[in-house]
Design brief:
The chain is α+β, with helices and mostly antiparallel strands. The chain has one domain. The protein has nine helices and twelve strands. The strands form two sheets. The protein has a nine-stranded mixed β-sheet with strand order 3-2-1-10-9-5-6-7-8. A hairpin with a 5-residue loop joins β7 and β8. α5 runs antiparallel to α9. The longest helix is centred in the middle third of the chain and has 29 residues.
Amino acid sequence: MIVGITHNEDGVIQKTTTYRGKISAGFAAGEGINKSNHPIPAGHFRILKETVSAQRTQSGQVVNTKQWVLNGPVQDKLMEEAKSKEPRKISFICLYKTPEEFWESSLAMYSQSDGLLCKSHGAGTVARYLQYNEKGERTWIDRQFNEVAKCAFEECPDYKSGACKAIGLMKVFPTADMAPNPYRFETRSINTIMRIESSLSDLWSLLNAAHTVRQIEAGKPLPFDGFFGQKLILWHHKVKSGGRDVYITEVLPSAEFTQSVMEPIKRGMLKNVGAAALAGSANIGMLTDQTPQSIPETEAVPIDVEDQRDIAVNFGADADAVDDVEESGSHGEPAPSNTAALNAIDKLAGNGQ
């Protein structure tokens, strides 16, 4: 352990993530059918891997060039799972307990030359800002506005100019390629970010409710695993936004998730109804005297330069690219909101795949 390098002052390890690949819903500039100089939507999921090729410059210097290309064997497995050549659903196993461990949304500004430049979790939170010292070394400071070290959000000149935007990053273990390292799913779509966070909040509540019933039935405290080991689904589809059709991605419960959480909840409801029917009994809810697990609040902004370096290629402030591949569309019927999908969770038990 090296405090200040591998660990922070509280002894918490500064984690870095090695990704197995990337989950994309578009074509990069000049890739495949895309002959333009900016990303375009694909309308379905594509699983990519990173390749490195050596190229010799005119001066004779050998330069390694990194590129994301389609991972053919894994894409074939995904198509087989989805029973479609254009898969719009990806089943994945969550190997993290809380949503905060595998999903993060933030406001961030990137540059292709320097990578991450500034990052916060919104208005009033700490904004970590890149500076170079006199030795040319990267240093991070708390950015200040009007002598206050907080994110100014809509008052920030970088946000006003469009250089700083919302971004979401999810660590995904797809069932089509289960491996020790996760795939990364990135999005600039504010619709996708809001849908994912709403879904994860709703599913977290269901996990808490099911855990509460299990504890009541066991008559003792039980460990709470949260999302760990649960099977979820990434769903890519079109919705109406601002009068136009756009692609978004959201998280849905799988049939396995539905059964694992709804069966205990149903038992708790039946027990509650039965108790209320007894003479002289009060109708006590199944959550009485139970404290649900809360999602930890995000206080610190993790700065992992290597983890986020590749994001700058697609989302850099100086990149010649469409802001968000997902926020593009043409035709299609609006899909039900995640709230409607979760309200119909019993139906999903039959067609979650």
